[in-house]
Amino acid sequence: WLAVFKQPKNTALDEACWVVALDDVQDPGNMGTILRLCDWFGISHVVCSLDTVDRFNPKVVQSSMGSIARVQVHYVSLDQWLDAQTKPIFGAVLDGQSLTKVIWPKQGVLLMGNEGQGIRPQRARYITDHLSISGAPSRGAESLNVAMATGILLHQWHLNQ
């Protein structure tokens, strides 16, 4: 046994003001960290593509530090789910709008992509607002870890609520 806990009471996904959506996130440590971040910032629902790592993977459970018991995780056909959304969909991309210029609405979806490939093209077409985290001009890294980027974006969203 890795953990025994009561799962969160299911609430309707469309009642959620903000939702984090994950497109093919594979690293269990990233998934667990994202669940913990969602818990910290008051996001109660995470929607995952069917090929995202299993929420009950032992490393996901461990790295969530108990947040798996408070955040509801939904595995869906992400294309169909995104297509049905009436909320704005914010996507993390390398060439998006600066976070300092974003107007965060009361409801929305934050779409985050795979560790190596980012958001897949068939999912990127649903993005209504392209976001980018600016770095130093002389940076050597080409991108941020998906969990780190999620944390920065959720913090910026939280500051503007």
Features:
6 strands; alpha/beta; 161 residues; six-stranded parallel beta sheet; Alpha/beta knot; single chain
Write a structural description.
The chain is 28% helix and 21% strand. The chain has 161 residues and is an alpha/beta fold. The protein has a single domain (15-133, 143-159), classed as Alpha/beta knot, CATH 3.40.1280. A 6-stranded parallel sheet has the order 3-2-1-5-4-6. It is globular and about 45 Å long.
Summarize the structure.
With 161 residues, the protein is an alpha/beta fold. The protein contains five helices and six strands, in the order βαβαβαββαβα. A six-stranded parallel beta sheet has the order 3-2-1-5-4-6.
How much is the radius of gyration in Å? 15 Å
Distance from first to last alpha carbon: 39 Å
Number of discrete domains = 1
CATH class: Alpha Beta
CATH architecture: 3-Layer(aba) Sandwich
- Note the overall shape: globular
Estimated share of beta-strand residues? 15-25%
Q: What do the pLDDT scores average to?
A: 92
